[in-house]
Amino acid sequence: MTKIAITPHRLSPLSGEPGALERAGLLGGDASPEEVVVAYHERTKHHFHRYAAAQGYMDWATQPDPFRRYAGADLVRLPLPKAGRPLPYWQLYASATLPPAALSFESVSLFFRYALSLTAWKQVGETRWPLRANPSSGNLHPTEGYALLPALEGLGDTPAVYHYAPREHALERRATLDAKRWTELVASFPEGSFLVGLSSVHWREAWKYGERAFRYCQHDVGHALASLRIAAAALGWRLVLQGGVSDGTIASLLGLDRDEDFTEAEREEAELLVLITPDFSMPLATDLKPLTAQSSGLLWQGRANTLSPVHSVEWPVIDEVAQATRRCESAPITEDFSGFPSEEELFGTPVRQGLLTVEQAILGRRSAVAMDGSTAISQEAFFRMLARLIPTRDGRAMPWDAIPWRPRIHLGLFVHRVDGLAPGLYALARDPGKVEILKAVMGSEFCWQRVPDCPPGLPLYLLKEGDCRALASTVSCGQAIAGDGAFSLAMIADYRDSLATYGAAFYRNLFWEAGMVGQLLYLEAEEAGIRATGIGCYFDDPVHAAFGIASREWQSFYHFTVGAPVEDGRLSTLPAYNVEEER
C-alpha cells in the first residue's frame, strides 16, 4: 500500500508575522485585536524544529491545585443521585421524547453530576488523581463552573450565585440576590430556568504548556459547554448560549471582577454564560439587558484559594490575547440552517437503540492513553460518529442547537482501520455549503470522491488512498496513538474569515466548537465500545501541508484519535464519591 507523506514544498515558513517570535509582546499598542490574535496563533504554533514557548520541564513544587474553593462561602452539598438511571444514550438526541424534569435540588444535583463532576479517581502507588465528566488538556482542568439559581428547597431560601465544587459535589454560595434583582434577571425566561457561567484559570494550563495554554483553555471550555448541553438534555432541558452578553458583564455577575476576593489568588477569565430552560416551545432571548446594570442587591462572601505558592514563569502573551478576544455587548448571531441535512439523511434510519445508558456513557468516559494498533471499527459506527457532528436543518440536533453559528470547524481525517473503507486521507465538510470552498483550499492532487454507502446527508469525501498511519503520528508531535487507532483527525477552522465576520472574540468560539466536536467523539466512542483521546500537541503547518493547505486563511485547531484502547494495568480505579457515606 502506498504510504502518504507530507509534500515538502507545502510547508509554511516559521512565522507569517514578521518579528512576532522575537518580541516580548505580540504587537505594538496600535495593533487591532484581530492582528493580536493572528500574531498569537502564529507565535504558538509547534514546528518540526521548535515547539511553542514553554518552561520545558515540570516544576512540581508549583503545580497548581486542581480545585478552586472560596473560604468563608457557605458550602451546600448536593445529594448524590442514585446510580443506574435507565435513560438510553441515544435518547439524548431525541429531545421531543423526553419530558423536562422539574427544577429542584435533586435535578440540579444530577445536572452538575453529568456536566462537571468527578467520575473516578486513578491511583498508582501513593499517587492519586481525579477524572471528571468534562475532559481537560493534561487533566489540569482550568475551567470553573458557576450557577445563578432561584430559591430551592434544600439549596437555599433566596436566589443566589454559586460556584460548583467538583471534589465535594457541592455548591458554594458566593452571593445572595434580593427578590427584585432575581426578577430582573429572569423576567424574559420561562419558569424553571437558571443560568450557568464558565471561566478559565489560565495559570493551570500555562504551568505545563506555556504560551500555547490559552488554546487549551478554550478547548476545555468547548468540552465543558458540550458537557453542559448533554447534561441538560439528560433532564429534558434546553441550553442557549448567551452570545450577546459582554465578558465584563459575566465577570461582574459571577464575582470574578472582585479584587478583594482574589488578593493573592490566581484570577479567572470570564468565558461564557448559558441559559438552562425546560421550555422548548418559545423563542428565547440571547441577550440579557438587565445584566448591564450595576450588581446591586448582591451580598458577596468567600475568598478564592491560591492555587500555586509561586509562579516561576509568567506568560504575558496569554494576557494580551485574552484582552484582545474579550467580548463586548453585541447583537446575537443568527444564521440559516435550511440547507443542512435532516436526521434521516444523516443516519438513514434514526438511531433508536444502543449499548449504553446516558449515565454509563458520561460517567464511564475515559481518555485512552494508548491504542492497540490493530482493532478496526465498522463503517456503520464510523458513519454514525461523523453524522453526530453535523447540525440538522431544523436546528434541533443536540448539542449544536446550543450555538447559533454555522459550523466553522471541518475535519481532515486519517483513516486507518474502518471495515470496507480504503485507508487514506478523507475530508468531512460539517457545513455542506463549504464543500467547494474546501476543494479550492486543499491540494489540487486530491480526488474528492464521495464515499460509497455513506448516508446521503453526510458530506464525507475520499481525498487520497494510502497508508497514513506514520503521517498521522508524525504531525501529531510524533505520538503513536494518532496512527494506532481506527482513525484520527485534524479539526480545520475557517479561521481568518471567522475573525473578519465576527471579530477577534470569535477566536475563542472556534476552539469552543472544536472542543464540542471532541466531546461528541468521546461519547460516541464509548457508545461504540472503544475510546477516544484529544490531541493538543501537533505540528500546525505540517498538518496543513498534509491536506494541501497553503493559505493561512485556514488553520488546524485540534486533533483527535479514536480506536481500541490499551489499558494500563498499573492503575487502580476508585469511585469518585463515597455514595454510602453521603446518604
Instruction: Give the N-to-C terminal Cα separation.
Output: 59 Å
Residue runs with pLDDT of under 50 for 5 or more positions: 9-24, 289-293
**Helix fraction bin:** 25-40%
Structural class: alpha+beta
Q: In the residues, how many domains can be counted?
A: 2
Label the overall shape: globular
CATH architecture of the largest domain: 3-Layer(aba) Sandwich
**CATH homologous superfamily caption of the largest domain:** NADH Oxidase
* CATH topology value of the largest domain: NADH Oxidase
Beta content comes to 15-25%
Please outline the major beta sheet.
8 strands, antiparallel
Task: Give the oligomeric state.
Answer: single chain
Chain-wise SSE layout:
Blueprint: H1 33-43, E1 70-71, E2 74-77, H2 105-115, E3 118-124, E4 127-132, E5 143-149, E6 160-165, E7 170-177, H3 179-186, E8 194-200, H4 202-209, H5 213-234, E9 238-241, H6 247-254, E10 269-277, E11 298-300, E12 303-304, H7 316-324, H8 343-347, H9 358-364, H10 379-387, E13 409-415, E14 424-428, H11 435-441, E15 449-450, E16 460-465, H12 469-475, H13 481-484, E17 487-494, H14 495-502, H15 506-527, E18 531-535, H16 540-546, E19 554-563, E20 572-574, H17 579-582
Antiparallel strand pairs: 1-12, 2-7, 3-4, 3-20, 5-6, 5-8, 6-7, 7-11, 8-10, 9-10, 13-14, 13-17, 14-16, 15-16, 17-19, 18-19
Helix pairs in contact: 1-7, 2-5, 4-5, 5-15
